[in-house]
Amino acid sequence: MIIQNETYNNNITFIKKCILFFKKTFGIYLLWIIIHFISVQLYVYFCTPLTLYGFLISPFISCAPHCKALNWTIYNSSNIIEYMWVLVGSWICSKILIDKII
Fold first, then answer.
1. Structural domain that includes position 67
2. pLDDT in tens, 9-48
């Protein structure tokens, strides 16, 4: 009975730690998703409008500072989102492996 109770307490502690970790990680992840989404929409609107004029002006406007800044934001936010998936996947795998070994 004592062993079951101790195992139950360890599981509850582990679940609390997981929830806290995902809450912190998901908050940052959500922020980067929002930044990425907004910058992509702004890039399309300001730098590559879907018109004939937008097509003709895009080689010139793509070098503008605001388009360069949006392009940088899109590129880096995409990389950060990818790295966060790797981080979460690695963390989950490590928890599975450690729990299997111990």
1. 2-101
2. 777 787 888 778 777 767 788 888 999 999 999 999 999 8
Q: Which two tokens stand for residue 70?
A: 């949006």
Furthest-apart CA atoms within the chain: distance in Å: 76
Tokens for 24? 């912190």
Tokens read off for 48: 């590559």
The number of distinct structural domains making up the chain is 1
Query: Cα(61)–Cα(81) distance, rounded to whole angstroms?
Result: 27
**Segments of 2-89 assigned E as strands:** none
Q: What is the CA radius of gyration of the chain?
A: 22
Number of C-alpha atoms within 13 angstroms, CB side, residue 14?
11
Residue 77's CB is within 10 A of a number of other CB atoms, namely 20
